[in-house]
Write a structure and sequence with these properties.
Elements: E1 2-6, E2 12-17, E3 22-26, E4 32-33, E5 37-42, H1 51-59, E6 66-71, E7 76-81, E8 86-93, E9 99-102, E10 106-110, E11 113-121, E12 133-140, E13 142-149, E14 152-157, E15 162-165, E16 170-174, E17 178-183, H2 187-192, E18 198-203, E19 206-211, H3 215-248
Antiparallel strand pairs: 1-2, 2-7, 3-6, 3-10, 4-7, 5-6, 8-13, 9-12, 9-16, 10-13, 11-12, 14-19, 15-18, 16-19, 17-18
Length: about 250
């Protein structure tokens, strides 16, 4: 099994599989593949051996169904593209090396990778789209490829060293890092500070990967233009409808 990452701003992961080799991804992640690749949709992969395993994966922000891609009759290639500007990194997973990742971070992995809920907390309506904050746990044995949004910044925290981060910027961290959600101090800071109410507190030892472009921030930046376009479309539709009604009367 070989892989390469193509591009910079919107990278693509290409994985070449030899006959009999396979990888797994969440349903809907495929970008393209060659003829030798066959796919099968299942709930049994990524730690989903049974209903309870699949439910744990969904609780972490994953999908109920996984897709397995296998090369049959010859070598083949399967590709996965990022959804927004960002980076793709590979991690080696083992019983001694597991990770917490943001809930949309898992791109694909070898067939012994397991996904489950790592952290889940409701942060109140209007925060993160009202969906709360969730992390996936990546465990098992093998290689996983993770999609992180925007630019990537890493820190190696020493034992007891703390880093406070807006939760949306938390991309991934080693499971040796302690994680908690803390509330900002001071009523004025919470109401008028513009930085939200909650911060993630990461305590070493371990490595932390932060992402510069949380999806919630991107959605907020685009919402003004989407609203304008929707309003304009509605106005155009009203004019056209009025003309058509006039012609038919």
């Amino acid at each position: 099994m070989d892989h390469k990452i193509i591009g910079t701003t919107m990278p693509v992961l290409e994985i070449t599989l030899q006959p009999g080799e396979s990888i797994i991804s969440e349903a809907g992640e495929l970008s393209w593949m060659t003829q030798a690749i066959e796919l099968e949709t299942t709930t049994q992969k990524a730690g989903g051996g049974g209903l309870f395993g699949a439910v744990k994966r969904v609780a972490g922000g994953g999908s109920l169904f996984m897709t397995e891609y296998e090369a049959k009759g010859g070598s083949g290639m399967v590709a996965f593209a990022t959804k927004v500007p960002g980076e793709i990194i590979s991690i080696d997973v083992s019983p001694r090396s597991t990770y917490m990742i943001h809930r949309h971070g898992f791109l694909c992995g070898t067939d012994q990778i397991e996904l489950s809920v790592g952290f889940q907390q409701s942060l109140g309506a209007g925060v993160f789209g009202g969906t709360g904050f969730r992390l996936q746990k990546v465990a098992g044995t093998g290689t996983a490829w993770i999609e992180l949004d925007g630019e990537l910044v890493t820190y190696d925290l020493s034992p007891g060293e703390r880093l406070r981060v807006h939760p949306g910027h938390v991309g991934m961290f080693e499971d040796t890092v302690s994680f908690d959600i803390t509330r900002l101090k001071g009523i004025k800071n919470m109401i008028f500070g513009g930085d939200g109410i909650f911060l993630a507190e990461l305590t070493g030892p371990g490595k932390v990967w932060l992402q510069s472009l949380p999806l919630a921030n991107l959605a907020h930046a685009l919402s003004e233009y989407m609203t304008t376009n929707t309003t304009e479309a509605a106005g155009t539709g009203a004019v056209v409808g009025s003309i058509l009604r006039g012609m038919s009367s």
